Amino acid sequence: MADLFIKQSKQYAVGRPGYPEKLFQFIASKTASHDLAWDVGTGSGQAVRSLAGIFKNVVATDTSQEQLECAPKLPNVRYEHTPPVLSIPEIEQKLAPKSSVDLVTIAQALHWFDLPSFYQQMKWVLKKPNGVIAAWCYTLPRVNNSVDTVFDRFYANDVEPYWDPARKLVDNKYKTIDFPFEPVSGEDNTGPFEFATERLMDLDDLFTYIRSWSAYQTAKEKGVELLKDDVMGAFKQAWNADGGDGQKAVIYPINLRIGRVGN
Ligand SMILES: C[S@@+](CC[C@H](N)C(=O)[O-])C[C@H]1O[C@@H](n2cnc3c(N)ncnc32)[C@H](O)[C@@H]1O
């Protein structure tokens, strides 16, 4: 799985959205202290800059060295290349001691993980009882009626066969993902809580985003170009339908699951 993110790591770094400060402020308001955060499946560090502004230290890990090489270098962030499943001794030696982490974040990546072993490790490394785990995903970007119609048709008809089955968890906005944690203070459930991130994008940016999908990479490996001329033509017509062919405000809806480890 992780291999799918290696080949398009440069596209990934420019093609993917960042996340709003509101999201990080909400999450950070639920942790008892702000000493250490661990961003798992960090990719090219889409969540790292904001975490580094709030937490004294950040560890950011990924199974793809190529992704990590595209991540921002910051004085209080340590990047580590890891295998897909870590053992407790590996965590202890390379990443963090037992019960030492205030916050684990997983941005657009939890659906790729082996959840039972991952959760066991997170319960070991998080501070007890108030260490927080926050995992979010974003669904299809929304532009306007005409672009959204073309995008939804493309996603359902052309792209669907090339997604890993785990993508369904994202389509379901993480409502159905296993998340065995207690509600954080001030909340009576673990979400999903809704946020949104906005980017100014032109049509080429939208195509770069599509090329950063694992499904795009899978299709390409099977000899299928998803962004064929007719598809790009339909997107172009829809993009220009409002009379503007330049940048537009594009919204990515975000769904957050957040919980604390308990005792
Ligand atoms: C869709 S990307 C998300 C990257 C980034 N967090 C973001 O918000 O855009 C998923 C990332 O998870 C990484 N990944 C996949 N399986 C992993 C695992 N078991 N442990 C750590 N990282 C993993 C991939 O290499 C990839 O960089």
UniProtKB/TrEMBL annotation:
One of its GO terms (molecular function) is S-adenosylmethionine-dependent methyltransferase activity. SUPFAM superfamilies: S-adenosyl-L-methionine-dependent methyltransferases. Pfam families: Methyltransf_11. Gene3D superfamilies: Vaccinia Virus protein VP39. Residues 39-133 form the Methyltransferase type domain. CDD domains: AdoMet_MTases. InterPro entries: Methyltransf_11, SAM-dependent_MTases_sf. This is Methyltransferase type 11 domain-containing protein.
